[in-house]
Design a protein that fits this description.
Blueprint lengths: L8 E12 L5 E18 L2 H11 L4 E6 L9 E4 L2 E10 L6 E8 L5
Antiparallel strand pairs: 1-2, 1-4, 2-3, 3-6, 4-5, 5-6
């Protein structure tokens, strides 16, 4: 099924939470903060990649989502089974219409 419109992709936003393991210790685990978030996922062009990588490491994509309060760069995004570290959360400068996430692909689960 194809989705029409700008936000035709769906991502999940996850946070790390401490959970008690069976032996009484604590573990960090990624859990959904918001699932099924409408998004536009755009791989960066060569120019954007070079400019972004100078400051933020290997930024590989830009994800735009409708405005959602509480999104932080300590979270991660999941799109099409791939985990992305959120390196920057850029609000819409004109209004609270959308948020742009600058992301790295290929991060570990830890």
């Amino acid at each position: 099924m194809r989705r029409a419109g700008k936000y035709r992709h769906r991502i999940a936003l996850q946070v790390q939470e401490r959970v008690r393991d069976p032996l009484g210790g604590d573990e960090l685990e990624w859990v959904d903060w918001q699932a099924d978030v409408p998004a536009e996922v755009v791989p960066l062009s060569g120019r954007e990649f070079v400019a972004a990588s100078a400051e933020h490491g290997q930024v590989t994509a830009r994800m735009e989502i409708p405005y959602l309060p509480g999104v932080l760069n300590t979270m991660r995004a999941v799109f099409d089974g791939q985990h992305y570290a959120i390196r920057a959360v850029l609000p819409d400068p004109t209004a609270r219409g959308h948020i742009t996430l600058m992301v790295d692909a290929g991060i570990s689960d830890g």
